[in-house]
Every structure is written in structure tokens, then in C-alpha cells.
UniProtKB/TrEMBL annotation:
Molecular-function GO terms, alphabetical: G protein-coupled receptor activity
Bilayer-spanning residue ranges: 15-41, 53-71, 109-128, 162-184, 205-225, 245-268
Family to which the UniProt record says this protein belongs: Belongs to the G-protein coupled receptor 1 family.
Species of provenance: Caenorhabditis remanei (Caenorhabditis vulgaris)
Protein name: G-protein coupled receptors family 1 profile domain-containing protein
Top-level division of the source organism's lineage: Eukaryota
Any one annotated GO CC term: membrane
SUPFAM superfamilies: Family A G protein-coupled receptor-like
G-protein coupled receptors family 1 profile domain boundaries: 1-265
Cellular localisation: Membrane
KW Transmembrane helix (keyword) present: yes
């Protein structure tokens, strides 16, 4: 095996493993913060349910003031890790000659640091949205008060959230994934592929479509509710029962999306299953990377004898 190709195979495996494991860890944080924020504190079996100064009200206040902002930060980080994965996949399929230049482990770690720092900066004001007396559990509105902080409500809660939490990630994910799907279809038409390669490309196409559709459907309610709140210039979910129901549905869908990405990659991505298997079985990642590189080289030799090269899959 040529050393350059072997090195690239191991490096790319480490890159994919780093991205997917980072996504899994961040999504786990989203779930762990969403659970007490949106569900556990509402359960009536907690001691002193809805009584001032009880464990229930103090836990509720703590979650709203401190846990909720951490969850928002993790959610934004997760979204842009998915964007980073989409861009990496776009380079691998649509710009294969540039992938070794741009999609290195060092560049990916640097991009991940930028994502985390920006997510923390963007969500830092959320720690000031509510104030609480942790001795009684009484919560008061801080920056989130729409009447007292009109511009914060419009610019931060509304416009910033709509663009940076939904529209920009969705635009990048949609454009890159659609171009990847188009490139795979074009390659299938121009080359006579083996059945195994066609199945891989079909799985990749299906996964990309599922990711785009799921992202749009899970963020639709939340974005629509933000638009409604901007029109009313206040929180419509606190005034109308219908919007309160939509608000709870939107939160459930956002958590569902964070949870579903793990299963989507687990079902469609061979590399992701290899990484998870390595973590669960405590196997050496370098060993898996070597096996992956050997399998890829074997496929290249087989397909090259038929006059074509395989298109990169997941």
C-alpha cells in the first residue's frame, strides 16, 4: 500500500471519527440539559410540587437560569458541527483534489474550537434572561422581558435566533447536500458502477435527504413561532393556548432532532458504526483506521480494473 494513500486513509478516518464523536457528545449534552429543563421539573412526584421553597421549585429555578443556557449553547454547537460535517462531505465528493488540503484533522479541530467559542459568546446573554432566588425558587424575567427590553427581544431573541439558529445552518446543509446528491447521480450516469458502489451511493443519498428534511421539519415550528412573536412583539405562547402548544411541540422537535442524528448516522454510515464499535469495545482506533484503508484500497484496485474509480461515500 502506498504510504501517502495509507496516511490519507488513517487521517480521514480520524477526522470522521472526531467529527461524529464530537457530535454525539454534544447531542448527549443537549439531551441531558433538556431533560430537567423541559420535563423532569414538571413531574408531580418531585417533593414539594409547585410549593415555594420546595425542592421542586428550587430545581425549576436552577434549570431555567443555569441549565437552559447551557442547553442552548450545546444545541447551537451541534447544529454547526452538522454544518461542518456537511462541508467536509461536500469537499470529499465534489472537490476530491482539495479535500486533503482543507479537510485535515488540524483544520477540523480549529473549526470546532471556533464553533464552541462562537456558540458560547452567542448564548452568554441567556444567563441574564432570568433571575432567581434559589432559596425560594421564585423566578423573575431579566433580559427576556419583552416590554422592558424591546430591542433585545427583537434583535437577539427574534432576528439572531432565526438567522443563526435556523436559516444559515439550513441553507448550508441544504446546498452542500443537494450538490453531493447531484454529483453522485451524475457519476452514476457517467460510469458503470458495481452493485456495491451503487448501494453505497443510494445510502448516502437517502441519508442526506433524511438530514435535510428532518432539519427543516424539526425547526419549522420553532422558527415560525419566532416570526409570530416578532409580529406580536411579545411571547405569543404566554397569551394564546394554540401557540403554547406549538411552543411545547417545537421544543420536543428540537430535542428529537438532536437525538435522531445519532441514529441516522448509525443506520447509514459505516464509518460511524466503526467508531462507535471502537469506543464500546475499547479497540484501538488506529487498528480500525488501518482496516478501513485496506478495504478502500481493495475496492480501488477492483474498480480500477473495470475502468473507473469509485465515488466517495460515507
Amino acid at each position: 500500500m502506498p504510504p501517502v494513500i495509507d496516511h490519507y486513509g488513517r487521517t480521514h478516518f480520524e477526522l470522521v471519527g472526531f467529527l461524529l464523536l464530537s457530535l454525539s457528545i454534544i447531542d448527549l449534552i443537549v439531551l441531558l440539559t433538556a431533560l430537567p429543563t423541559f420535563s423532569l421539573y414538571k413531574l408531580p412526584f418531585l417533593p414539594g410540587y409547585q410549593k415555594i421553597g420546595s425542592f421542586h421549585t428550587i430545581l425549576s429555578a436552577f434549570c431555567i437560569v443555569y441549565v437552559y443556557p447551557i442547553g442552548c449553547t450545546a444545541k447551537m454547537t451541534s447544529q454547526y458541527i452538522i454544518v461542518l460535517i456537511a462541508v467536509e462531505r461536500w469537499f470529499a465528493v465534489c472537490r476530491p483534489l482539495q479535500v486533503q488540503v482543507w479537510c485535515t484533522l488540524r483544520n477540523t479541530i480549529r473549526a470546532m474550537i471556533y464553533i464552541v467559542v462562537i456558540a458560547v459568546m452567542f448564548n452568554a446573554p441567556r444567563f441574564l434572561e432570568f433571575t432567581a432566588d434559589l432559596s425560594t425558587g421564585i423566578v423573575n424575567m431579566g433580559l427576556s422581558h419583552s416590554a422592558n427590553n424591546k430591542w433585545y427581544f427583537i434583535l437577539y431573541y427574534g432576528i439572531r435566533s432565526i438567522f443563526f439558529d435556523t436559516l444559515i445552518p439550513f441553507a448550508v446543509i441544504s446546498v452542500t447536500n443537494i450538490q453531493v446528491i447531484a454529483q453522485l447521480k451524475k457519476s452514476n450516469e457517467e460510469r458503470k458502477l458495481l452493485t456495491t458502489q451503487q448501494q453505497k451511493d443510494k445510502k448516502t443519498t437517502t441519508m442526506l435527504l433524511v438530514m435535510v428534511i428532518l432539519y427543516a421539519s424539526c425547526h419549522m415550528f420553532n422558527t415560525s413561532l419566532k416570526f409570530v412573536n416578532l409580529i406580536f412583539k411579545t411571547y405569543a405562547q404566554f397569551q394564546f393556548t394554540l401557540f403554547r402548544v406549538l411552543h411545547h411541540i417545537s421544543n420536543l422537535l428540537l430535542v428529537t432532532y438532536s437525538m435522531s442524528t445519532f441514529f441516522i448516522y448509525l443506520i447509514f454510515s459505516v464509518k460511524y458504526r466503526q467508531v462507535i464499535a471502537a469506543v464500546v469495545s475499547c479497540r484501538n482506533m488506529e487498528e480500525l483506521a488501518t482496516n478501513s484503508s485496506r478495504g478502500r484500497m481493495k475496492q480501488v484496485k477492483t474498480t480500477s480494473s473495470n475502468g473507473y474509480k469509485p465515488i466517495k461515500s460515507v
